């Protein structure tokens, strides 16, 4: 078992293991391009959908919170505005 562990450890950290391509420079070019688009649109359809979902949840959550505070306000229950 010691030999197996040694083999697996060497395989996991050796240079012959699968190399991952660095995609950061490509993403930097995409997002830093001066094409007049807002940053939340530059990433494509998935980024646009994620942005819209985030904004919808944020606005809906704030609206619900405001509704909650208005309905629990002690001023309204006593007729004072």
TrEMBL record:
One of its GO terms (biological process) is mitochondrial respirasome assembly. This is Cytochrome c oxidase subunit 7A1, mitochondrial. It comes from Mastacembelus armatus (zig-zag eel). It is a single-pass membrane protein. It holds the Pfam family COX7a. Gene3D superfamilies: Cytochrome c oxidase, subunit VIIa. InterPro entries: COX7a, Cyt_c_oxidase_su7a_sf, Cytc_oxidase_su7a_met. Signal peptide: none annotated. It is found in: Mitochondrion inner membrane. It comes from the Eukaryota. One of its GO terms (molecular function) is oxidoreductase activity. GO terms for cellular component: mitochondrial inner membrane; respiratory chain complex IV. Pathway: Energy metabolism; oxidative phosphorylation. Keywords: Membrane, Mitochondrion, Mitochondrion inner membrane, Oxidoreductase, Transit peptide, Transmembrane, Transmembrane helix. Its main location: mitochondrion.
